[in-house]
Amino acid sequence: MIKRIHYVIMLGMIGFFALILVNTSSNPVRESFTYFPPDPDVSFDSASTSLTILTQEDEDEYTLNWKTESTLSETAYLRQDLSFLYEEGRLIDSMSTWKENTATIRQKKGITSEDSGHYEAITYHYGEIHYPNDVIKSAQKMSYDQLYVIDSPMTPLESFKQASSEEEKEWQYILDHAIDQQAQLVFKSMVAEYNLHPEDYTILSLTSLDQYENKALPGLSQKQTTDAIGGIWEGLYKNYFLGILLPDSSTEPPIGSTIPVILIHKQSPYLLILFQTKSGKNVQLIQYLNEPLLERKDDSTN
Predict the structure, then answer these.
(1) What domains are defined for the chain?
(2) How many whole angstroms separate alpha carbon 75 and alpha carbon 96?
(3) 6 conformational bin, left if phi > 0, alpha if psi -120 to 50, beta if neither
(4) Over the stretch 136-165, which tens digit does the pLDDT of each residue have?
(5) ∠134-135-139 over CA atoms, to 5°?
């Protein structure tokens, strides 16, 4: 039987998040990342994630070039970039870099792979700004990239981000269809385990979260959206990137886990983050919002 792992992430009145583990086992944090309220005077001048084919090692292998870069509008007390790389909907690697008293962070890594695949990378760029009297604020931004790699014995190695030719469209459909089928099976198992009703939620993938930087998440204000995004990444850092805590106080590495799915409740002020570990254990994170939801006019008019 799959053991239930249930974390609660609560959004405090001043924007901090407290993590509460339902099974009460201890979880010493090896590193710390805390989201602070946004600074309206600080923003990112640039932020990007890039996936390209670097080299072809031989007929069976190629190297994927994965890079992230971000520059804040001013030097920050603390800067961090956290990036997740997925292949076929499963985490295959991650990068995280901390720097003090800097504005810019650059990361890069080469990933050796083989066969055709759909790669997705999403990065959270974060800056912590300190002011007198212990006032701490932050700036955040996300970036995303994807790459389809076609490694067929009948054709030379090929890659594309958006399908243009009929052949590329056919390959994209084949790869996406297989990923979607597997994702649906995982989602159904999580919905069943946690007794959820999908129609009560707006559902989106972590890899689409960057689309909500300049627009509000469904049913949330822009302020709630900013705080929710910060809380999502804080929770994933502590309960995903650093290792997934199990009820026996052991941890399971995040490699091989699924892309987290975010479910925003349509009537109540909370959202869920669901994912499955490589070994098949389902994980649920809950984030409560500190403000009421906006009135959903589309629901009231139907």
Answers:
(1) 5-35+180-301 (no CATH), 44-162 (2.60.40)
(2) 19
(3) beta
(4) 999 999 999 999 999 887 778 899 999 999
(5) 135
